[in-house]
Amino acid sequence: MDTHKTRRTRFTTLRRGLMIPAPALVLIAGTLLSRVGDSLASLGMVLDAADRGIRWGVTEVFLAELIPTVLAAPLVGALVDRLSARTVCLSALAVQATSFGTAAAVDGFHVRVALISLSGLAGVASVTAGFKMLPVVAGSEHTGRANSFLTAGLSTAGLIGPPLAGFLHSARGTAFLLAADAVSFLVLAGCTAVAVPRRTDVAVGRRPATKISDGYRALRDAPVVGMLLPTLAAAMLATSVEGVAGVFYLRGVADGNETLFGFFLATWALGSVPGALLAGRAGWSARHTALILGGVLGISVALLSAGLLPVAAVIFPLFLLGGFGNGICNVGLRNAVHSQVPAQVHGSAWACYQALSRICIGLGYVLGTPNSLVSSRGQVIISGAVPLAFALWAMLGLVRRGQPFLGESPAKIGEASG
Q1: How far apart are CA 277 and CA 287, in angstroms?
Q2: Helix 85-105 crosses helix 174-195 at what angle (to 10 degrees)?
Q3: What is the pLDDT tens value at each position of the chain, 418 positions in all?
Q4: How far does CA 322 lie from the centroid of its chain?
Q5: Distance between CA atoms of 365 and 240, rounded to whole angstroms?
Q6: Is the pTM of this model over 0.70?
Q7: Cβ proximity of 169 and 51 under 8 Å
Q8: Could you tell me if 161 and 109 are in contact, meaning their C-beta atoms sit under 8 angstroms apart?
Q9: Three-state SS letters, 313-351
């Protein structure tokens, strides 16, 4: 019999499952504002390079954001694990704010790029420390939901940032966008100081003897992440190839309609929001294998089909599917690292994953560049076929080993986190 009391109990249970501690929400809100600021500054510099007619300017900006992560991530991750994550994060945010504030005050393009590179180096530390602190302020019960909210918010920031940057660049110029990003880092520093007080910081696991290689070893040894790293690498490589080749292919599908092309790009980000939110539900957040593989399948099917069917009306729902897969895959990955990698090396593991992802992204941008061997449409088709093959191979491996698709063994998770 379904009494009012029973319904109230169910509602209370559901509401508790959706709640995230206030400190975690503060930290997430600051991160999202900072991500919007990053979008403003990054696009502002790209537009500035175009306005000045600097031939390799866009590439220079891209490399300034990419190289520090690839080179310094393992060392910075080990530093985060050895020291106070809160102190490292606040110090790094101060460096980022100073770098962008200085970049706003100077006019030289190359000087600005050098300052952005310095900020990128500090950004490895702030992002890694933020990843390490989130489970502490959210609590293990709410970490999956917090990752879900954060991922959905980052996708929303990706929707807001580019058009806002274009408008503000026309109205106020590049210096204003750089200054806005500097302010966003100060706001994030304030949110971090509030969300992670000094007395909470002692709960963040530390390992005095952390080695640079510990992060890579932790990723390899994690039951789900280690097994699916090749599949994840293929997906990151594929989306990066499409990110370049798709510009030419999709503009052709849109018949030169820039507004329609912009909607194509926005659709992917829009689809990732519900994907991320669904992946944070209590019944799904622990199903790391299903989320990662399901996400990669969604991405690969969407890209492959979009390449095979060059029709705008078909590409829109396909990109919603791809974005949905992207969202659930990102949440599944974050949850898997948080739950299956020991807290003492969360910083090293996440920093090393950032390095691996940037390598894949950089390689994807190179492979996606137009060439005489493969058309842009062919590149998009390949970008869907490759991760699809990796995902199917991973699924076949699971079947052979008799491992579950929809969840991980609690025993394994406990062993990895202990």
Answers
A1: 14
A2: 160
A3: 445 444 444 434 334 445 788 989 999 999 999 999 998 888 888 888 877 777 677 777 778 878 888 888 888 888 888 888 888 999 999 999 999 999 999 988 889 999 999 998 899 899 999 999 998 888 888 888 999 999 998 888 888 888 888 888 888 888 999 999 999 999 999 999 999 887 765 445 555 556 667 788 888 888 888 899 999 999 999 998 888 888 888 888 888 776 787 788 788 989 999 999 888 887 777 788 999 999 999 999 999 999 999 998 999 999 999 999 999 999 999 999 998 888 888 888 898 898 899 899 888 888 887 777 888 899 999 999 999 999 999 998 888 877 665 555 444 444 444 4
A4: 15
A5: 6
A6: yes
A7: no
A8: no
A9: HHHHHHHHHHHHHHHHHHHHHHHHHHHHCCHHHHHHHHH
**N residues, the chain:** 418
- Residue 49 token pair: 């390079």
